């Protein structure tokens, strides 16, 4: 299996008060850089980072080990970011994408590795039974998933309709993304 990791980071972060692609950990590490590191550590051969809101500033935070994927229609919602990532992944040799969110900077590589090891053509991490990320999508689903996406809806409905495997990762991490700034 050849895996292309994808960091979904194109949104405006309205509840957060700005693009999450510009956020950093307390030690100064950009969230986007941490996500790229996590995907590479879990075995991804390529990493794509979707950027939309704040793209100019955010692109400077993306490590050279990743490729920026511009999402000009980012304001349409998460669907635009996933579609752009899938189109960009088509140009790689990967047969699988592994999607993560930029606002999960403490996602452990072990959760990515567990989802990658689950087998099947569609899989997603769950945390205490609650759906989360990462999400694994094999190439045979990319076109049909892309055409099914709309608005701020991600891959969830497609995954449910196509019997995606669920991979419990609650023993590794809490599974929550960061929607608001601390404090």
Automatic annotation (TrEMBL):
A GO MF term: molybdenum cofactor cytidylyltransferase activity
EC number(s) reported in the record: 2.7.7.76
Keywords attached to this entry: Nucleotidyltransferase, Transferase
Matches recorded under Pfam families: NTP_transf_3
Location of the MobA-like NTP transferase domain: 5-162
Keyword Membrane assigned: no
Name used for this protein in its record: Molybdenum cofactor cytidylyltransferase
Protein source organism: Pseudoclavibacter helvolus
């Amino acid at each position: 299996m050849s895996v292309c990791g994808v960091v979904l980071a194109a949104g405006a972060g309205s509840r957060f008060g700005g693009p999450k692609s510009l956020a950093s950990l307390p030690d100064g590490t950009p969230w986007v850089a941490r996500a790229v590191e996590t995907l590479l550590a879990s075995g991804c051969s390529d990493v794509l980072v979707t950027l939309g809101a704040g793209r100019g500033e955010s692109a400077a935070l993306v490590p050279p080990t990743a490729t920026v994927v511009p999402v000009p229609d980012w304001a349409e919602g998460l669907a635009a970011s996933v579609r752009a990532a899938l189109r960009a992944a088509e140009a790689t040799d990967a047969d699988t994408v592994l999607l993560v969110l930029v606002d999960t900077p403490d996602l452990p590589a072990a959760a990515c590795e567990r989802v990658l090891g689950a087998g099947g053509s569609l899989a997603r991490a769950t945390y205490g039974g609650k759906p989360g990320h990462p999400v694994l999508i094999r190439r045979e689903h990319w076109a049909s998933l892309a055409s099914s996406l709309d608005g701020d809806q991600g891959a969830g409905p497609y995954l449910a309709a196509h019997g995606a495997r669920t991979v419990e990762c609650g023993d590794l991490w809490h599974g929550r993304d960061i929607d608001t700034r601390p404090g």
